[in-house]
Amino acid sequence: MSAPGSVSTAPVVLVSGLEPVAVEGCDVCGALVVQREAARKVANAAKVKTLSDEIARHPHADTSETGTQE
Fold this sequence. Notes:
Elements: H1 27-41, H2 45-57
Helix pairs in contact: 1-2
């Protein structure tokens, strides 16, 4: 434990354990997942986060006829 008023230089790693997943059949989501895994392999946490955010924001329209997503 640190003394009161001291500052730790240890890195802080926040892990939620949850990441957005690609929508099956979506080429854009699939490409983002491949890029995210490549960034993870070289330990580029900022790029992993950015790509996860892109996957989460990527829109998919519901098609009322089939009930599936595009």
